Amino acid sequence: MGDLCSLSISISISTFLILLLVFPVLSTQQQPEEEDNPVINRFQTYLRFKTAHPNPNYTVPVSFLISQARSIGLHTRTLEFVPGKPVLIVTWPGSRPDLPSILFNSHLDSVPAEPDKWIHPPFSGVRTADGRIYGRGAQDDKCIGMQYLEAIRNLRELWGYKEPTRTVHLSYVPEEEIGGLDGAAKFVASKEFEELNVGFVMDEGQASPNDDFRVFYADRSPWHVTIKATGVPGHGCRMFDDSAMENLMISIELITQFRDSQFNLVKRGLAAHSQVISVNPVFFDAGILTSNGFAMNMQPSEASAGFDIRLPPTVDPELIRNRIAHEWAPASRNMTFQYQLLVALVIKTKLLSCCTEASILLLKGKELTVIMLMCSCQHVLLPGKEELVTLELKFLENYLQSLSLRFLIRTSAPTL
Ligand SMILES: [Zn+2]
Prior knowledge:
It contains ten helices and 18 strands. With about 425 residues, the chain is an alpha+beta fold. It folds into two domains: about 10-220 and about 345-410, Zn peptidases (Aminopeptidase); about 220-340, Alpha-Beta Plaits. About 40% of the residues are buried. The structure holds zinc ion. Zinc ion binds near residues 1, 107, 141, 176 and 204. One of its GO terms (molecular function) is aminoacylase activity.
């Protein structure tokens, strides 16, 4: 999940039930005991592939997904816009290929894990007696990628639903966790994507700790900002003005004050996390290295710090740009800065959900490209140092089935 979305509404269980009533698709069969549950087993297999950055293995999980897709009669196609970074497209052809298609997206990669901080190894896919499944990527977002396939499997094998009206595509893309530039961005810009004639996209969302499925229609823009101070080096025994460290420390103090002002809005209940500008330091780099640490009697001539900043769509980016230029890294204090805007957000339709890749898809600017959201997984624990899901997968599976049927059944273009 590149970023969590800023505005949300809830689809409650009652809404979910209404969906089921409106589209009275059959109840799912009782799942077998957990020990023998092939759905869970397949999910665990997917979790065991080491797809974490900085060296995600894409080859083996893509082969696994292809085999799963083919086992339920779906077509597969692998695109490789950047060597070693495949985009897998799984297709369920519809009876009306002239209609815009439906695309369900998920990403193959995961954020890094620190194995010594986990109760269970992050790529073991361990399921505990109380039904928890541990794994890096369990929430974000291998559960989604697998549920797409399991939902279609159920539609075809349990419900006898052989052919949708609209063609359905599943996309499994690489590199989402590092911005998607070599994954979704290239995919969306390709003629292959154009040929899919996508009219509706569903992407990952935010994990939910209860039975609410939240639909997001806006996203925050992530900025990666590095500020750098330079100054006259000097001996550690003497105080003087305009050292690099002093300049950087002044900036850090100002940035901390700004961060507090934003965070306090959240702490006082005046704003949600997604509605404020979040500023988090991610590195400090300074000091003169020696063979056994740092020179403790030298003031260095350079010092820098990095920040992960997230802007809600309601904030004018120029404001933060000016703040950086004039307050956090002003030339008057011998400072420079650089930033990387990972994804620019464009809101074009009424009901949109965006995470990183949804934003990329939005940039495509197609009128019919409507992004909606499913939550990561029901009954999840929000990400801490570990990542896990519980076995309440059936609920989300039902949700997905009902929601997908809603669009599969319609013969006119979605009007979200
Ligand atoms: Zn994700």
